[in-house]
Design goal:
Blueprint: H1 2-27, H2 35-38, H3 44-56, H4 63-74, H5 81-94, H6 112-128
């Protein structure tokens, strides 16, 4: 008789703990994150604006829109990836279009001047024309 009671208690405990555990798992499931999202690279445009905007504060009423415009229009006119990367680095570090010769391979350093000529008009438009989507 004692063995039957112990078996019944053990079985009841086992069944109830399993049901309670299943209910807890349903209630407290961790958020599902994909493996890919753990290693997600930040948005390069957003990172550029984040680095650029502090240099524009005090100079422009809307520093984020000026930085966005420089990224989307001025730098987009530069086809060469090395020159464009150097230009974006200069803007994000100083707040003005800058290219250090050390940032560009020696074979492309002669293109720095023509690059500034190419970006002059879009840069001035970004900095001095009123933003239309504010």
């Amino acid at each position: 008789m004692f063995l039957r009671i112990c078996s019944a208690v053990f079985l009841t405990f086992f069944l109830l703990s399993g049901a309670a555990q299943a209910q807890l798992q349903l209630q407290f499931q961790p958020p599902q994150t994909s493996f890919r999202s753990l290693f997600k690279v930040p948005d390069p445009r957003g990172e550029f604006v984040r680095l650029c905007a502090p240099h524009m504060v005090g100079r422009w009423a809307h520093p984020e829109s000026v930085c966005s415009c420089l990224h989307d229009h001025a730098a987009a006119t530069v086809e060469d990836a090395d020159l464009r990367e150097a230009l974006l680095r200069g803007i994000s570090e100083t707040g003005v279009p800058t290219i250090e010769t050390a940032w560009v391979p020696p074979s492309k350093q002669s293109e720095i001047g023509p690059t500034f000529t190419k970006i002059a008009k879009p840069t001035l438009q970004c900095m001095f024309e009123p933003a239309t989507n504010q």
